[in-house]
Amino acid sequence: MMAKNRMYCFIAAGCLLAGVILSGCRNEVAPPAAGPAEVAVVTVATERIVLNTELPGRINPYLVAGITPQVSGLLQKRLFQEGALVREGDILYQIDPTPYQVALDQATAALALSESEIALAEANMPAIRSRAERLKELAAIRAVGAQDADDAQAALRQAEANLAVRRTAVAVNRAAVESARINLSYTPIKAPISGRIGKSNITVGAMVTAYQPTPLAVVQQLDPIYVDVTQASAELIRLRQRLEEGDLKRSRSGMSRVRLLLEDGTPYEKTGSLKFRDVTVDPTTGSVTLRLVFPNPEQLLLPGMFVRAVVEEGVRENAMLIPQQSVNRDNKGNPFALVVDAGGKVEQRALELDRALGDRWLVTDGLQPGDRVIVEGMQNVRPGVEVRAVPFVPAPRQSPTAAR
Questions:
Q1: Which of 115, 225, 253, 357 could form a disulfide linkage to 257, CB 3.0–4.6 angstroms apart?
Q2: Residue 247, Cα to own-chain centre: how many angstroms?
Q3: Which architecture does CATH list for 70-95+187-214?
Q4: pTM to 2 decimals?
Q5: 73-78 and 91-95 as β-strands: parallel, antiparallel, unpaired?
Q6: In whole angstroms, what is the distance from residue 73 CA to residue 69 CA?
Q7: How far apart, in whole angstroms, are the C-alpha atoms of residue 313 and residue 255?
């Protein structure tokens, strides 16, 4: 019995000794006290950027001409393929020229007759004038009767009047010949402009009427081509104020260079130019129309297509850009950023933002060059606490020149 008690004592003493040893080990590996939180920061610097505005618009042809007959008649031929490229002066349709050729022949014959009559009248004039003058002289010396002299003068005046009438008839007949010739020249209907022609609205054998309201076909010039976009009048005023105040400077191109994004977002490879800005604001939309001109040699741009135009606003020389993830918003939606001051403490700054450019915000107020803005680790800090700042390594980003 005593042996058992002695064994229990040894076991208890061993357990107590093990507990003391383990307690000592834990005291030796205790971690040191926690230091300032680590945050990743970017240092604000200024840079030169080109600001753009992205505007919606639609494509319109550079020139449009409806093919309308200028004389009436039977349509004999159609001399083009629908959808083909035609050039100015190409014959598109042929109207039956027979009645107009006959009218020209008649007018030509009438002119020839009147010209022969006037030639005969002019040939008789010297004899009539000479007789009248001679009888007038003889009447003065009473060699002939006064009545004979008066009759000769009357015959002269009548011949002169007849000659004037025939000259008028010649002028009328010449005008009739020219009119008939013009009408005959209108029987082949020609393309007034170069471009691509659409479908024909009439078939061979149909009657057409001069200046009819429905065109036979439509020709559209597609190279170059217009892009009409709209811009809010308030945005136009804001842009003008920034230019006047010096916040923006006009680019060397004078704000004339324009890029284009197609319906699927693909950039159009050709660069366009600003043709003009309309002088009237649409009262229903509060916007003005800008007309842009783009080269279209491959005719990829077609009338009616929806596109987005990227128009250069101007250049900001000292722009400040910070990553988008460094900007937070308060309960009212106002943007702010956390900045590490010179003492290593966190400071909250209210911001004024202009627009997003790629993955960065353009800041107009609230920051100064050299400020260290927290990008990562802000969830573990608050204003007034001390932090340890390390440089932020950004991922590859988009070009700083972007559109709103």
A1: 253
A2: 26
A3: Beta Barrel (2.40)
A4: 0.63
A5: antiparallel
A6: 9
A7: 6
